[in-house]
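Quick one: structure tokens for this chain, please?
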Amino acid sequence: MRIRSMMLGAAMALALDAKADEGMWLPSQLPSIAKNLKDAGFRGDPKDLADLTKAPLNAVVRIGGGTGSFVSSDGLVVTNHHVAFGVIQYNTRPDRDLINEGFVAPDRAGELPANPDYRLRVTVGFDKVTDRILADARGKTGRAYYDAVDAASKALVAECEKEPGIRCSVANMFYGRDFYLVRQLELRDIRLVYAPPRAIGNYGDEIDNFVWPRHAGDFTILRAYVGKDGKPADFSPDNVPYHPPSHLKLATEGVAEGDFVMLAGYPGTTYRHRTAAEFADQIEWRLPTSVAVLKGLQEVIEAQGKADKEAGIRYASQLQSLKNNIKRFSGELEGLKRSDAVAVRREDEAAMLVWLATQSDAAALKPSIDQAMALIAQGKDVRDRDLLVGLLTSQTQLMRGALSIDRLSVERLKADAERESGYQKRDEELIQSQLTQIQRRYDPRVEKALVTSVLTRYQRLPDAQRLPEVDKVFGRTPAELTRALDGIYGATTFADEAERTRLFAAAPADVAKSNDALLVAARTLRPALLRIEEEKKAREGDLLRLRPAYMQALIAYREKQGKAVYPDANSTLRVSYGKVTPLAARDAVSYAPLTTVQGIVEKNTGAFPFDAPVPLIDAIHKGDFAGYTDAKTGAMPVDFLSNLDTTGGNSGSPVLNARGELVGLNFDSNWEAVSASWMYDPRYKRAIHVDMRYMRWLMDKVYPSHALLRELGVPAK
């Protein structure tokens, strides 16, 4: 039987026996598994879930680095406290500590604007464009293949974005096998409405992160605004609330063990369809190396924050992100080792290749598979260098801004279609916003210490991985590095917001003539960064060309096994479904799926990170829970556990009951399943959600906002 014939008309192939607890399904796939949904307990019409213009999916939004959902007709959005933490940090000052004290807007005029680059996007279109993307790429290799795909993608995006307020992108499914054009309404004026104190939103901090049982109220409420004409607009006091086409209804009843639940959101990245060699690289090098490097950066920020409170506030969001990634990577490493993932994946891949050899398409597919595997193996040569150089931009503020200005000045000399993605005219407003917010997220001492941490590691690399330009700017020894950083940061005027604004607006020739110390450094580094970029594009072009053969074989093999087939997550809208489920973590260790406020009291020590606010403890002791308690136990719920399939990016995803009502807010996974982005194990995979009854009770009895509860359709009890 020919593999190709098995997949005719199945761009998103489905297995016959898809399991309810596994699968990050594209909405378009859901009608094909309607029976599974109904059998699991869903009471709606699965066809409605395939229509992005209908409720509930048109109420689900991508916001910040996670997911949120509209919950009122006047643009209220609920998401996680940690998804909105950058907004909270941006509005925190030494004399207004929103991080630790929380925030309740007194009225709409008192709602606080988010950081300028904070965006909310609603998916309004999702169309297959594979033929258009690959039309000019076929027959090409390497960089030429990459450029053809890139040019076709940019052309589609430019055509799509002629509609005002629409942001478009091309999503790669099954690693180059299919491409989809994603259309999203982008809203730019987002404001902070309600945030609990840190000791509620992040109760337990890193000790409890990725751990069950959990007792965090990880939620925040925002509001989206538009211009008076109803169109997306930058922040203005004259803007009005956005009126979404639909919004989710908050459930008045909670959930219990065994209840059907469903989640919609924007999961970031999974790697379940990667090769065995990539599994090995993740476990043997990438995860342990990343943990070590990021711990160094964490230590820098913590030390600097202890010495300077204001610096601590400026870097609070970055520190929280570092701590989360460190623990996630550590858990992923432990989980993959516990599952013996490399051996399991190698055995699975070997069996697939043996099966492939019996298929008539083997001769056509196997050469491409072999080439892809050889190319993947070659990527090890410069991986340490690329990791560290990448951190110079991702973990700095002022240096990243200077590199952006320098690169933008070069790209502006080109026709817009020929500019590098991220530096086209469509991107300039976002770049400008990022340059503006530096003012509240930068401290020269902290940044120099962060750069020192990264480049000290870089200076230990063998000469074969060293870049002459980096050595020229920063030296080859720790002493030379210290002198270079003192000189650059001591002389630059780029820290002045007016100067950044001037340079952003300046002609390319004027930027090129600037003798600012940081811009000179960026200009000197540019050739090295472009070479790295060139190498990656050539490699990525060949992998885009070759991986589809691997995926074609893998999909057919999975279907033969009767297993679920869905694309790896890539920040596009997905749906998963399952049940409220307990966890048997290991021998003699089992967990119930719901936690209560009693656990908050039991954990409370009065010291960080178990320093529950006094108003919360007082309210718990008072016991005024009427209207919010669990129907069976009479206890006041906090969080609950399900077997929903989630990963990073699903933070803030709405959890719905069988009637499509909002019962929870996804915010974490359990320690035993952090590795699920690579390997799914139904025995351990659980997702952790804030129970909406806890959110409502906090807004009613502890940090009251009865006006908001009325707007949410759940008046105070």
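The longest strand covers residues 178-187.
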